[in-house]
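Translate structure to sequence.
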């Protein structure tokens, strides 16, 4: 074979093997996930901590939620899972406070999906405090109790903590998943790495499986 043709063929095969090697079931750092420059502290003990950074207004977060919730159920006691609603200006602040109020009242499991539906199905803006209060009341939550928690120092502290975590974890888009304070992945990363469209959502869960397994093995 002509040496030039052999060189070109080798380059093509090398490129193809690189593409094949980078996939949700065999994720590569810098492609389907990133390693944080500095590991963040976790308080999950021997279990693996998984954090979703998200926002109620975000259509990508809404699309990801059903598959993510099912994944969390399947993980069971293997992980400690929690969500952090990211800040993004004055219009999103009421939604963020809504999330942390539900969390503080122990109502997140019951009303998290309903809050998403309020924005993406009912098209409620939830961009002002009174809009959030009205929604909570219509949803069956005691209005006065909700407002007290919404305006409490505890919720304010959660909002400040979310801002700090967003900076520490270097969150640039959402939904973004942090694994064990060490790794980040997202549907956006998986999509850019060659898994397009809705397949990127399922692909992200596959990447998460791999990263959780790695983090768990490192804890032994």
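Result:
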């Amino acid at each position: 074979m002509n040496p030039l043709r052999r060189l070109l063929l080798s380059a093509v095969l090398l490129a193809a093997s690189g593409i094949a090697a980078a996939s949700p079931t065999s994720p590569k750092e810098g492609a389907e996930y990133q390693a944080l420059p500095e590991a963040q502290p976790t308080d999950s003990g021997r279990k693996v901590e998984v954090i979703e950074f998200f926002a109620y207004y975000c259509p990508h977060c809404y699309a990801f939620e059903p598959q993510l919730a099912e994944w969390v159920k399947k993980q069971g006691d293997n992980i400690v899972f929690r969500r952090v609603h990211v800040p993004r200006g004055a219009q999103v602040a009421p939604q963020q406070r809504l999330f942390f109020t539900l969390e503080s009242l122990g109502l997140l499991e019951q009303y998290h999906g309903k809050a998403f539906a309020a924005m993406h199905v009912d098209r409620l803006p939830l961009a002002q405090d009174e809009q959030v209060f009205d929604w909570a009341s219509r949803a069956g939550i005691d209005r006065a109790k909700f407002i007290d928690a919404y305006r409490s120092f505890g919720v304010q502290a959660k909002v400040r903590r979310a801002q700090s975590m967003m900076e520490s974890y270097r969150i640039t888009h959402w939904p973004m998943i942090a694994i064990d304070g060490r790794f980040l992945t997202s549907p956006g990363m998986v999509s850019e790495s060659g898994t397009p469209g809705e397949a990127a959502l399922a692909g992200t869960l596959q990447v998460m499986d791999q990263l959780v397994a790695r983090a768990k093995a490192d804890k032994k």
